[in-house]
Specification:
Layout lengths: L32 H13 L6 H5 L2 E2 L19 E16 L2 E8 L8 E4 L3 E8 L10 E2 L19 E7 L4 E6 L5 H6 L3 E7 L10 E10 L9 E2 L4 H6 L4 E4 L12 E4 L3 E10 L4 E5 L4 E5 L9 E4 L1 E4 L3 E8 L4 E7 L3 H5 L3 E7 L14
Parallel strand pairs: 1-2, 2-5, 3-11, 4-9, 10-14, 13-21
Antiparallel strand pairs: 2-3, 5-7, 6-8, 8-9, 10-12, 14-19, 15-18, 15-20, 16-17, 16-19, 20-21
The structure holds copper (II) ion (CU).
The site of copper (II) ion has 7 residues, from loops.
Length: 365
């Protein structure tokens, strides 16, 4: 199998006869094919080696648009995964009566949610829409390598670029465009999240998972001005946004778009911050986070019983909580002018039976 001309490593006829392994005398046990097969099976099971079936063919990933998250990964081995993203510039709604010329991944702000597993090799293709005005690129914070991929994905309109990378570290990571002038590409909407699930010790089961990404917009007119609003570089440099939003639009998570869950369910929020400038003080009014994975880091210390968690631009957090009481739970940046006056407000509507021992709205009457 491995040897040539009867020398080196050979697989003999009998499964229990030894290899002609030149250094076998150095090992305390006999180097037998059965032992080797057992060892390889163990390595495959642990995800150290790829399963032969997965090594042959790549999985094509279907990312989701916010607030939706792809289902948890069921496979127990690493794989080759194909992901395709398209840079798209489009005119869309920033708020009721207010339009904006967004730059995006996939025609949505934020871009699609990508879910892979630690040890996966991701073959990423970035297309740039032929109707684009500018080149675009991608820097994924989950990538180990120059520019997170930005150097090899500078892509002119109508063209595409590809690179492959191995997901070495589990966690929730931001990706964004990194084409000069980088802050402008980010300010116009080019960011999203990628989750690298851990190979061992999977995240605990959640009943509902949602994708939220905070970011700012800097417009020529003030907050609430109607019509098409251009980008204000001057306001962006002064870090004075007119809009601070979840999922790229004022009202994206309120009214008919509110998130929904039931009493007794465990909710997990994957929260990112595209910035480009402001640190988020992420808070859900009326809830306490049972667990926070600060920085979106998986495998490190977990914070328990958290009221508000900081999420910097280019950073993320995973927050989890179980719902005990029905009602409306506002999701805010607790730098509170942003929630009341600049749009950083979502809503989680929780239905189900009351628990009057936990919260009794009538007890004081
Ligand atoms: Cu770009």
């Amino acid at each position: 199998m491995y040897g040539e001309g009867g020398k080196g490593l050979m697989v003999p006829q009998s499964p229990f006869s030894t290899f002609h392994f030149p250094f076998s005398h150095l090992f305390p046990f006999a180097f037998r094919p059965f032992t080797v097969a057992l060892f390889l099976t163990l390595l495959i099971g642990l995800g150290v080696l790829p399963h032969p079936a997965l090594a042959a063919e790549a999985i094509t990933l279907i990312p989701t648009q916010a607030p939706n998250v792809p289902p948890p990964i069921q496979r127990s081995a690493q794989a080759r995964v194909k992901v395709e993203l398209e840079a798209k510039e489009f005119r869309g709604s920033l708020a009721d009566g207010t339009d904006y010329d967004f730059w995006s991944f996939g025609g949505s702000v934020p871009g699609p949610f990508i879910r892979v597993r630690e040890g996966d090799t991701i073959e990423l293709t970035l297309k740039n829409d032929p109707h684009s005005t500018f080149p675009h690129s991608i820097d994924l914070h989950a990538v180990t390598g120059p520019g997170g991929g930005a150097k090899v994905t500078q892509t002119p309109p109508g063209e595409h670029s590809s690179f492959a990378w191995k997901a070495l570290h589990p966690g929730l990571y931001v990706y964004h465009c990194a084409t000069p002038h980088v802050p402008t590409h980010i300010a116009n909407g080019m960011y999203g999240l990628i989750l690298v699930e851990p190979a061992r010790a999977a995240l605990p089961k959640a009943d509902r998972e949602f994708y939220l990404m905070q970011s700012e917009f800097y417009t020529q007119g003030p907050h609430g001005a109607h019509g098409l609003q251009g980008y204000s570089m001057e306001k962006a440099e002064r870090e004075q946004p007119d809009y601070v939003l979840f999922n790229g639009r004022e009202g994206s998570l309120t009214g008919e778009h509110a998130l929904k869950a039931k009493v007794g369910e465990r909710v997990r929020l994957f929260v990112g911050n595209g910035g480009p400038n402001l640190v988020s003080s992420f808070h859900v009014i009326g809830e306490i986070f049972d667990q926070v994975y600060p920085g979106g880091a998986i495998g490190g210390p977990i914070m328990k019983n958290v009221q508000t968690t900081l999420i910097p631009p280019g950073g993320a957090a995973i927050v989890e909580f179980t719902l005990d009481v029905p009602g409306s739970y506002p999701i805010v940046d607790h730098s509170i002018f942003r929630a009341f006056d600049k749009g950083a407000l979502g809503m989680l509507e929780v239905s189900g039976p009351e628990s009057l021992d936990i919260f009794n709205p009538g007890a004081a009457r």
